[in-house]
Structures are given as C-alpha cells and as structure tokens.
Amino acid sequence: MSRIRTRTDVDEAYAVQTQSAIEGALHGGLLGVGSAIVAHYTWPFFRRQTFQFKGFLVCGCTLFGLVIGAERALLEYEAVRRWEENSIRKEARIELARRGIIPTETAISNWRAERNNTEEKG
Q: Which InterPro entries match (predicted)?
C-alpha cells in the first residue's frame, strides 16, 4: 500500500511541477521579451547589441522563470503533503493512546491500514 501511495504522490508532484514550470517559463519569457523591447528603444548601448545576445538574455529570463516556478510549486506541494501526513500521524497517536497502545511506527502503520480498510468498507 505504501508503494502505491508513494508512486501516486510522485506522479501528482510531477504533474504540479510541470504545469507550474510551463507557467513560470511563459511569465519569464514575456518579462524577458518585454524588457528587451523596452531596453532596445530606450537604451542606445542595448540597441547596438547583437540579436543573438538579446535572444540569450530572453532565454535566460525564460529559464529562470521555469526553474523558479517549478521549485515554488514543488515546495508548496511538499508543505501541504507534510501537513496532511502530520495531521494523520497526530490522529493516529491520539487514537492509539486512547486504546492504551504505545504509538510506534508499526502501530501507526497498522492503525492506518485498519483505517483504510474501514473507509473502503464504509
């Protein structure tokens, strides 16, 4: 069960990260193109630069947006998953303590499996 849940989490994190990376790349690319256009028309030194150099700067902005967008989304996803996992573990510790069982990792795993079986039946 744990491997299936882990694989699902990995797939979901990948999808979230990919979508956010695309959005970040678009934002960074638009910012880079806009900045290059403004700099071209307002700064004579930039106007004299080659098209390839300007393209390099725009690509750098795009790549920066891609990386930052993907990283931000992954950190947010991990924080939410960590919060969910901690709340489940807290609930397990409280329930096991009520039963008089010491909440070890094995006991928490058994409680989780028991809870999943109850949810599937009900």
A: Rcf3
Amino acid (1-letter code) at residue 11: D
Do 110 and 94 form a contact (C-beta atoms < 8 A)?
no
Give the type of residue at 24: G
User: Using one digit for the tens of pLDDT, what is the confidence trace for 92-117?
Assistant: 999 999 999 888 999 998 998 888 88
How far is Cα 18 from Cα 122, in angstroms, rounded to an integer? 36
Q: Measured between alpha carbons, how far is 93 from 102 in angstroms, rounded to an integer? A: 8
Whether the model pTM is above 0.85: no
Q: CA angle, corner 40, sides to 67 and 30, nearest 5? A: 30
Hey, how many other C-beta atoms are within 10 angstroms of the C-beta on 23?
15
Compute how many other C-beta atoms are within 10 angstroms of the C-beta atom of residue 13.
15
CB 61 within 8 A of CB 32: yes
User: Model confidence over 33-49: pLDDT tens digits?
Assistant: 999 999 999 999 999 99
CA 61, 67, 68, 70 dihedral sign is positive
